[in-house]
Specification:
The chain is of the alpha/beta class. It has a single domain, classed as Alpha-Beta Barrel (TIM Barrel). It contains nine helices and nine strands. The strands form two sheets. The chain has a seven-stranded parallel β-sheet with strand order 1-9-6-5-4-3-2. It has a two-stranded antiparallel ribbon with strand order 7-8. Helix 3 runs parallel beside helix 4. It is globular and about 50 Å long. It starts with a strand and ends in a 5-residue tail after the last helix. The structure holds fe (iii) ion (2 copies) and zinc ion.
Length: 278
């Protein structure tokens, strides 16, 4: 089964996202859990969430991959920014329990000249403060392109964060094809080798989701500019090999390409046509 979807607007609630996903041929999706500019998040309507859970089960949806605001920085130098990151994540995880058993992806953060050692310690500290034994949501660290002082620029950095977290059973990783390509992992010529490296350093059992993007930049550029599928340096053929790779089967694939909803529908159709069961 290919679970594929894209980012959807959460402004009308879960059922609206579920219906829109189904309309465009998606069976998973991503959404921002709150406005990236901060402020209080909209409360969840429990009826809407329960209706959605039923709809998702009836329509064989895969796991959702919610996205934390990209302004969240768990390893900022400024304590106020770190407090926002902590409080927003705790609040998001509480609200995620209205749609239990899904994923919550976040950018590990930027260490802003403090260095990766302090960055790693601060991210782990936030996770150790916020994660609870009771939560049903798995929190995913996103692999980053390594722009500026971004943390999570390679598999080793992600592993070091995971190593310092107490409730490791609540943690996973989301790889972003544009980010790892920009980070220097050659998924065009050596996808097997990249996944073997992931397995050796982090373990494939931690890999829970994939962001599907082409890249405007060449291998190792550390730029993070997403392109439409087939319109970048990764190319459609390599991305088709990603969705069909035996190690990645069954994971949710989320498009974050520069598209409107019709563009997403076309990319979903294209990838489905190029996916082979078994
Ligand atoms: Fe992201
Ligand atoms: Fe991403
Ligand atoms: Zn990106």
């Amino acid at each position: 089964m290919l679970y594929i979807g894209c980012h959807l607007s959460s402004s009308k609630g879960f059922m609206a996202m579920g219906r829109q996903a189904a309309e465009i041929g998606a069976n998973t999706f991503a959404f921002f859990t709150r406005n990236p500019r901060g402020g209080a998040a909209k409360p969840v309507d429990p009826k809407d969430a329960a209706d959605f859970m039923k709809f998702a089960a009836e329509n064989n949806f895969g796991k959702l991959v919610a996205h934390a605001p990209y302004t969240m920085n768990a390893c900022a130098a400024d304590e106020n920014i770190r407090r926002f990151a902590r409080e927003a994540m705790a609040d998001d995880l509480a609200r995620m329990e209205s749609v239990p058993g899904n994923y919550y992806n976040f950018h590990p953060g930027s260490h802003v000249k403090q260095g990766t050692e302090i960055g790693t310690a601060l991210i782990a500290e936030q996770l150790n403060t916020v994660l609870t034994k009771e939560q049903s949501t798995i929190v995913l660290l996103e692999s980053m392109a390594g722009k500026g002082s971004e943390m999570g620029r390679n598999f080793e950095e992600l592993r070091e964060i995971i190593d310092r977290v107490e409730l490791q059973e609540k943690l996973g990783v989301c790889i972003d094809t544009c980010h790892i390509w920009d980070g220097g992992y050659d998924i065009v010529n050596d996808l097997d080798g990249v996944l073997e490296q992931f397995d050796r350093i982090i373990g494939l059992d931690r890999l829970k989701a994939v962001h599907m993007n082409d890249s405007l930049n060449p291998l190792g550029a550390h730029k993070d500019r997403h392109a439409k599928i087939g319109e970048g340096h990764i190319g459609a053929e390599a991305l088709i090999r990603v969705i069909n790779h035996p190690a990645l089967r069954g994971l949710p694939f989320i498009l974050e390409t520069p598209n409107d909803i019709d563009g997403y529908a076309r990319e979903i159709k294209f990838l489905r046509e190029n996916y082979s069961e078994s």
